[in-house]
Hints:
Elements: H1 3-79, H2 82-87, H3 97-106, H4 108-141, H5 144-155, H6 162-173, H7 177-201, H8 205-213, H9 218-255, H10 261-270, H11 274-302, H12 304-311
Amino acid sequence: MSEGQVLQRKRDEGVAIAAVTGAATPLTGSQITSASGSEIHGQQGQAEKARLGTSVRRRSIVLSMLPWGAGVLFLALWQLRVFHWIFSLESYQLPVPSAIAASIQENANMLFRYAMYSGTEMLGGFLLGSLLGALAAAGASFFPTSGRAAVTVLSALNAVPIVALAPIMNNWFGDGIWSRIAVVTVITMAAMAVSLFKGLTSIQPQYSDLLSGLAASRMQFFWKLRLPHALPSLFAGLKINMSTSIIGAIVGEFFIASQGLGYLLSDQIRLANMPLAWSCIVIAAALGIVLYEAVVLAEKRLIPWNRARTDQ
């Protein structure tokens, strides 16, 4: 190889090295640009998530405050006598909230004592009726065909008016607290039986086939499949019964009673003392709401998966 060829070869290698070096430099800049773009996109995504989370929290707060706002607006319209103007009512026919609050304050001790009496009737009948209805539904679930007929007959008790049932229970159990407990028991037993029986028997076929394939006994069917599946129906029945138990207790006291919110309500209506009569209504409503929310809270604690499923 001549000296000129050697020099030309070295010149070519230098150009090649320079070309490689020159290509590497722009690549490094592109990578830096790409990395910076990824970081910017990541920060924008985090900001978007934070903004979305803030929006969801604000919407949740507004939705939770909406019922309270509606209640305050309702009381304000009531206090300003807007309903009196709409329905042509006088103050003695519909006392304003401030008059009812003053009556509650003046008669606080008596109202508390009567509320405890009516609350005992409600809870006693609610627990007894729900227990009997649950036992009837559980027994009927072992014999679905004949059990459905028995639950249908039991549901006919719901068709009996409370105003007809209360005198009968007074005749059977006297004028004491047990007659009102019996009224509440009868009207709550049927609702629980119907609701729970539906939950116990509405099993998807693939689950039944799975346990049948494992040779499960009837009791294993009940404890492992039917009862867990029926827990939402159980709480649905409890919530219905809690709402109806206050009606049964108050109406039952209308006929023969010497104390209780229903007795005081009917007595004060006869005396045209409407602020105190409306105080009984407000206390009874508050008692019913508190006990109903207690059932809802128990449902959330015991079967949280049902709430998550229904919120979807």
